[in-house]
Design brief:
CATH topology of the largest domain: Rossmann fold
Structural class: alpha/beta
Largest sheet: 6 strands, mixed
Strand order of the largest sheet: 6-7-8-3-9-10
Shape: globular
Number of strands: 20
Strand content: 15-25%
Distance between the termini: 68 Å
Radius of gyration: 24 Å
Oligomer: single chain
Number of domains: 3
CATH class of the largest domain: Alpha Beta
């Protein structure tokens, strides 16, 4: 019996214009949690997609329990005992939860027909074992992102694999669900399952990892026991330099009110929400999952119509029935889910970057392609976007670079108010610092920024002022000088102590 359940060596992989992996290796012991760390584009997900049979390596070998294997496709990976939870959710929205769990391996009755009854029963058994409270008969499209992520996790575990790859499994779930997942991982580890864990959250690495492997620019850097690392050492290995300021918040002059929202209502999701944002200000919106933070931004932007309330931009009341009206009013919204509501994967970086600003570059209906190329190239330089060319498909970029493209999309519309929902979700520590630096620079240029974030350090580090929500209402307002995690959590659970924040 080999000491390692998995040995990958000399793995290389290239895509057009990009050397994603350069002779890297990975060795994983059974019954351990082995974390993979590195900036976006370091090669972590690419290596795991090779293990899962999604990509074929250009060269290199894979050995499972001492036996060399060829992983031809995802079905072959599952047969070899390898399953993977992907960073970008891969569920089928129109199918039920149970149908997604058993997609491609549907149970059949004695007549050989697919049995939904058996499917639902087995799904309930899986959910009961792992204490997941989701109705197997619900359509996936009815679930929140957090619930969909838990279904993906349950599906991967249900294969009974000896190696489970988890790529950013906690990027969209609540702190309570993170704790739940970590307990599940502990049980899997005790049963001898090897967990390969990709995350950008440092606290998770030190909480659950036995070993850590660091990649940088497609190359292996180091493998160390987690106990030998601390935050500073890990960051230095990841980025090749010390990163002393994760939240480079610069002071900006606070000017006139740009956005004023009054009495905004949309069912139980948004209830009598009122607030103001000024030029140069970064307004953070905090709260627990389901508090209504995302729904407020979407209602302001016209993704869903408000039942009542008003939105003023630069002192002028605007009637916003759809996102097109919001863009004309000078609003921009970077959504929380890159895959579902952000990127258009089959289009180029240029097309993704310019789509919202096309009216600016098509006077009298004539598209000025030269001007578009010049503007996109300027954004590429300003945001240090890593792509071989603007013609590259956006789906081939790392998550951090996709996020930069989406930011560029809205900056090209020249907004007065930039609303950003989870600006650094699924982004590495280096790219986070870059995004935060850009936000500070935009505030200094006089932009008003509204930021929704589930990461408390980000809220505390980047906000001039914090609004806290609970059950669709604003329950508190805290200035930067008085903002603490304890105070924000007090307001985030303050359903019985509703307070009206000062204007």
């Amino acid at each position: 019996m080999s000491e390692f359940v998995l040995e990958m060596s000399g793995i290389s992989k290239s895509f057009p214009g990009v050397k994603a992996l350069q002779g890297v290796g990975l060795r994983v012991r059974p019954g351990t949690v082995h974390s993979l760390m590195g900036e976006n584009g370091a090669g972590k997900s690419t290596l795991m997609k090779i293990l899962a049979g999604i990509y074929s390596p250009d060269e290199g070998t894979i050995v499972l329990d001492g036996t060399p294997v060829t992983v031809a496709d995802p079905r072959a990976a599952l047969a070899l005992g390898v399953s993977m939870i992907h960073q970008e959710l891969s569920s089928v929205p129109e199918l039920t939860v149970a149908e997604n769990i058993f997609l491609g391996r549907e149970p059949r009755n004695r007549y050989g027909l697919v049995s939904r009854k058996i499917m639902v029963r087995r799904t309930r058994e899986i959910f009961d074992r792992w204490e997941i409270r989701i109705n197997p008969r619900s359509a996936m499209k009815q679930l929140s992102i957090a619930q969909a992520q838990m279904v993906e996790i349950a599906k991967a575990i249900s294969f009974g694999s000896r190696i489970i790859v988890m790529d950013e499994p906690t990027s969209a779930i609540t702190e309570r669900e993170v704790g739940h997942l970590h307990r599940m991982i502990g049980q899997l580890r005790e049963a001898g399952t090897a967990i390969i864990y990709i995350t950008h959250k440092m606290d998770e690495v030190f909480a659950i990892s036995d070993d850590v492997t660091i990649f940088r620019d497609g190359q292996w850097v180091a493998t160390k026991p987690a106990a030998e690392l601390d935050r500073d050492k890990l960051i230095a290995l990841m980025v090749g330099r010390e990163l002393t300021d994760l939240f480079p918040k610069e002071e900006a002059p606070i000017g006139d009110v740009v956005l004023r929202v009054s009495g905004l209502n949309r069912g139980s999701l948004v209830r009598d929400v009122s607030f103001e944002v000024r030029r140069g200000e970064i307004l953070g919106i905090a709260g627990l999952m389901g508090a209504g933070r995302t729904e407020v931004l979407e209602t302001i932007f016209g993704v869903h119509p408000a039942e009542s309330g008003t939105v003023e931009v630069n002192g002028r009341q605007r009637r916003i029935r759809e996102p097109r009206d919001a863009i004309k009013a000078g609003l921009a919204l970077l959504t929380e889910d890159r895959k579902r509501t952000g990127i258009m994967g089959v289009l180029s970086v240029r097309d993704n970057m310019s789509v919202a600003a096309l009216p600016r570059y098509s006077p009298q209906g004539m598209l000025r392609r030269g001007s578009i190329d010049e503007a996109c190239e300027d954004q590429r330089r300003r945001l240090a976007l890593k792509t071989p060319s603007l013609n590259q498909l956006i789906q081939n970029l790392s998550g951090g670079n996709q996020q930069k493209v989406l930011l560029s999309r809205w900056l090209l519309t020249l907004p007065d108010v930039l609303m950003i929902d989870e600006p650094t979700r699924g982004i590495d520590v280096g790219a986070k610092s870059e995004i935060h630096r850009l936000m500070s620079a935009l505030a200094q240029q006089g932009k008003a920024i509204v930021m929704v974030s589930s990461e408390m350090p980000e809220v505390l580090g980047m906000s001039d002022r914090v609004l806290v929500m609970c059950e669709g209402r604003i329950t508190g307002e805290v200035p930067r000088s008085e903002a603490t995690q304890e105070r924000i959590m007090h307001f985030a659970t303050a359903t019985a102590h509703h307070t009206t924040p000062a204007a």
